[in-house]
Each structure stands twice: as C-alpha cells, then as structure tokens.
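Researcher: Next entry in the queue.
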Amino acid sequence: MALPNSSTRLPILNILLWGNTVALSWVWGLGLFFSVQFTVEFGLTGLLTFLIPNCLGLFLFGAVCDVIAKRHPGSESLAAFFNNWSRPFRLVFFLYQLIAISLTIFALIRYAWQPLGLRPDSLYLPLTALIILAASILFGEEFSIRRIKYSHAAFLALIVCCAAIIIAELGSPYLRGIERPSLRPTHDWNFWGYVIPICIGFLVGPWLDLQQWQRAIQMRRENTSITASYAVGSLLFGAILLFHGILALWAMEGGGSSYIKIGLADYPYAESLLTRVFSAPPTNAWLLGAYLTFLSACILTTLDSGYIALRWFLQSNASKSKHPIFSLIPERLVSSPIPPFMLCALIAVTGAAIGIELEYFMIFFATFFVGYSVLAIGRAFMNGPVNVIPQVKMFCIGSLAVVIFAYGYFLHQPVFQILASLLPLGYVFWLLFKPLAEDFTTGGEELEQPAVASVIPLTPVGTVLTTVPTGTHDIGGHFEEKWFVHTFIATYADTNSVGNVYFGMYAMWVGKTRELFFNRLMPKFNLKETPFYILTRSFEHKFVRETREFETVSVKIRIAGHNRKFATLEHEIYDSSGALLGKGNQSLLFVSSTDYKMLDIPNDVMTAFLAYS
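Model: Structure for this entry, 613 residues:
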C-alpha cells in the first residue's frame, strides 16, 4: 500500500492543527465549568445534552463558512464577505467578546482559585487576576493567528498529559464514573428550562465569536478545508468536555455532593466541585496540580485566542471606520486589546468578590445574543430587507429576553426561561419574513453593496436637469445634501479631433470641482502658511458614456469615508438629461509642509468637512 506523499500529508496536518486550535479556543469558561454543573444536576443525560448541541453548533459554523467561502474564488473570499457582512454587527461582536473574556477569567478565579481557601481575598484575588491577564497577553503578543496553531498543539500535549496523570491517580473508580445513571428524569421542567436555551444559544453562538471567524478566514487563506478542520475541532472539544463531565460523575459517585453549595434562590452550584474534592484532605499534590494545570491550559488557550482576535478586530475597524473619533484618539490605544482585557479582568474580579455565579453571565448567551446571531445567519443568505439591522428594536428585544429569563431563573419558573430564549428567535423570524419590510429599515444600517451599485445618484437617470436661469448660476458650485455640485458647459477646448470630449478632461473636471469644494469649506486656507499639504494618493474613474461640446455637464463630489490617515472622495458626472457619464473615487493623504512626513488628518480639515462626511 503506497504511503501518502508530502503534498497529501501537509493538508491533513493543517486540518489537525487547525481543528485543535478551534477546539481549544471554544473551551471557554462557560463550556468548561457549566458542563460540571449540568452533569451534577442531570447526570450523564445532562452531560450529553449539554455536549452535543455545543459540538454541533461549532461544526455547523465551520461547514456553513466553507459554503460561503466557496461562493467566490480566491483565498480572500471569506475575508471579503466578513468585512462586508459584519459591519452592522461591530458593536455586538465587541460586546460578545468582552462578556466571553470576562466570563472566562471569572470562571478560573471563582472555581479554580477561590475554592482553595487562600486568604485574604483582597490580596490573592487581584494577584490571581493579574497572573491570568499577564499570561494571556503574553501569549497573545507572542503568537499571531498564523502561528497560534503551533502553540496550541503544545498546549494540547500539556492537557493530554494532565488528563493522563488524573486518570492514573484516580484509577478504576474514575472509569466507573461514566456508568452513573441520570440524577433527574428528563421530563423535569427544570431540565428543559436549561436544555432549550442551551440548544438555541450554542447552535448559533459561534456566529458572533471573533475567534472562530478569524480562524475560518485564515484557513481559507491557507487553502485548508474549513469543514474538515471544524469537524476535528468539534470532536476534540467534545472529548475535553466529556473527560471533565466524567470527572464530575466520579466525584459524585465518591460522595462529592457534600461539596455542592446552595446559593442564590436556593439553587445548587457545583462548578467548583472538582477543585474542592481534589484539594480536600488528604490532598494528593499530583492530582490537584494536574487538575489545576488542565484548567489553566484550557482557559489560557481561549484567552490568548481572544486577545489575538480582538486585536485583529480593533485594528481593522480603526483603519476603516469613518467616525471622526478615530482621528483624535492615539492609534495604539484604539487598536490595542489591552484596555478591553483590563476591563474584563475588573469585571471578573468584581464578580468573584461579590460571589455571583457563572449562570448570570450565561443568561446573555442564551437570550440577548441569540437574536443577533440568527439575524446574522439570515443576512448571510438572504437579500432585501434582511440587509438592514433595526438596532434599537434588537437591543430592546434582547434586553427584554434577559429580564424574562432572570425572572424565570430566580422564581424557579423554567417556562419563562424557555420563552426568553425563544423570544429573540421568533422576533428575528418575523423581521425576516414579515410582508411589510419598510419598518425593517427604521434605524437600520444598510449592507455595503459592490462598487458598481454602491452609489445612488441624487439625480436619477432619465430625469432632465432643471436649467439654471441666466445670471443666477453659482459659478463656485453649490451643495445638494452632502454632494458638492459644479455645473458648466463643455466647449471645443474639451474635445478631441473626433468631436467627443477628450478622456483626460473628465479627470480635469473632477480636479477642478474638488478645488472648488475645498475652497467652499476652507476659504481661509493659505498655501504659504499651511502646516500641511493635501496630496492625491490614488485616482480611479470609470467611463460610462461620452458627451460632446456645448453639453451642460454637472460634476458631483462628496466625502465617501476616512480613517486616521486617508480620506476618500467619490465623484459622479452627469449630462443635462441626467445620464451618468462616469463615476469614480480618489484617495487623499496629508503630509507636513516642512518635511513631507505623513500626518493624521488635521483637525482643521476634520472640523471643516465633518458635516459633509
């Protein structure tokens, strides 16, 4: 039998490496510790019920991303889709990542460190948070998305070693833990009060996780099968949760129920069960050390992934955003994930200090983010009304679902928990399929369309322009909303030997209109005294129709966008009948008038042009 050659082995190796990092990036605080809680409450039935939709949601995300990536050829097809598709969800992506990171740091502190009983809390709690924060930032800075699969391979080896030590120390009693029957029957309403939100939340949850999008995009760039990688990742992730859940079954078999504490609203909380069991006298140092190392490795591989993904997200938005605030705040501060991580650590430390539980964070992923996730999925496959986001309505529905779920949880009424998870889902389906789509656009943000169809002319094709009465025409141009318009008559000097307007004149007309536009907004600009110059970085024009001498021509120009360094202008050229002659764009940069070093967009320019951006 012939062995596979190196060209065959390399894609397989890449699939395994990417599958591993997919699994480890998804082993965050919620999955790792709530698997123990659900296993303790509902036995092996609960563990499998929690595990299966979690793994299935992760795999389906990868499979669907693969379909999306193959819509268009090229290694950047998925990246281009994400850049366009994710625009209205930018704030939701950021909030999702903040809560997920806060939850993960909180879970490690609350369920791995606090049960050890080190005192005083005021000393050890912030020090522990600082260690977690420093380690995650260190690994996030050291490894990029291209190299993280190699560092995570080393972490997997560490996790496997820890699991082997734990199994060896526990021996056969651990293996018998899987035989433990379900602690509660599945017809218990409390069971369904958890299962339905879990199924909904985990099946659609990966769609708002920046870590998974960054991995899928990188897989596409490396020509690695996204579907196969996520299949491997889902299986490996399931194996880690299964191992942890069976540990909980073993602990309960050995009398670990005495370590379950009763918390708020008389709920039993068992997330810290294993740490308490392994640290109870007589303490087995190897067992406790291996378990804490196992937890730390699982958590750290999520946090370093979160750091890299957040940095990628912030840098991308800082460079592309049109908001003027990005020109005023230092670039390193805007694009650094360190301030968000510090905020997450503060939230985690505060939560651990006041004694809240993991379920309080979980509520958001079972309710608030569900609507956004489902809408994002629909928006990836549907056109029309789905291309806009009713931000205010979505926020209100999500918040309402959180409150309803909280009432159900604290009042021990699972039916409210179920309704709260279904509410955003039902509302999004209504938005997608309701017959009157006009309401859907209220307060929405439209999906960016391809360049050919991205600009809707202010003067529709086929509409005759109103002739300006003699003597009243503004020779310096005028504004139509945010468009600056300069109208003139083409003459013989603009034409070539055939009689059509020479192609180079269109660029000349745009240049003249741009100068009039700048003069209108910055009339006191003095070229001899200015501390900056405005230079043209690029110019692009698409010719649509020709025109001839003595034709009335209108050149329209506006600010299409800007970031810290560059401004983009759009232009359109029309004849007197409203027919589009051509369109295009240009990019401007700003340099110092003394040494020609590139500058951020000057404040004078920002102030003058802000109303028209």
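Model: The longest strand covers residues 580-592.
Researcher: Noted, moving on.
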